[in-house]
Design brief:
- There is one protein chain.
- This protein folds into two domains: 37 residues, no CATH class; 117 residues.
- 15% of the residues lie in helices and 48% in strands.
- It has a six-stranded antiparallel beta barrel with strand order 3-6-5-4-9-10. It has a two-stranded antiparallel sheet with strand order 1-2.
- It is elongated, with a radius of gyration of 26 Å.
- It has 170 residues and is α+β, with helices and mostly antiparallel strands.
- Strand 6 and strand 7 form a beta hairpin.
- The chain contains two helices and ten strands.
Amino acid sequence: MKFIDKDMKLFGKISLIDIVIVLIVIGAVVAAIFYFGSHGTGLGNPDNHPITYEVHIKKVDYDFASQIIPGQQVNDRVKGYNRGIVESVEIIPHAEKADDLVTGGQPLKEYPDLYDAVVRINVNAEVTDRYINLSGNRIDIGKEAYLQIGPNVYKSWVSAIEVHDEGGGQ
């Protein structure tokens, strides 16, 4: 009896193509378990933790920014999911670095009638060793988000993230 016959069967009984297909399927299942298990999508066991994250809303007028009040619900404007509850709001005059052609430096220049709002938001999120997952979306520092707070929509950027332990400390 030959090891592989003319019909590409192992010992005349098992097709090599069938073996390759089975190995590919098994490999894909194992890869999916490792991938989804480490990305907080339900197959793994990521930890849910209370987090506080901070977003910056830039270049808005004072009346627009002052409508953000602690205790308000925050939703994602694009996907509609819950982004948390406003903990605090700090409204500061908007300033940017501007080229000074005389001195060659970049001093901060304040812009009249424009403000930045720094909003701290509390929410429970899945925390893995690689990132924070909130309703299937990652929260990363520097990531842009369109947040609906009350009737208004604000374009913002995540500037800080704090993960709290279950006991309420940090």
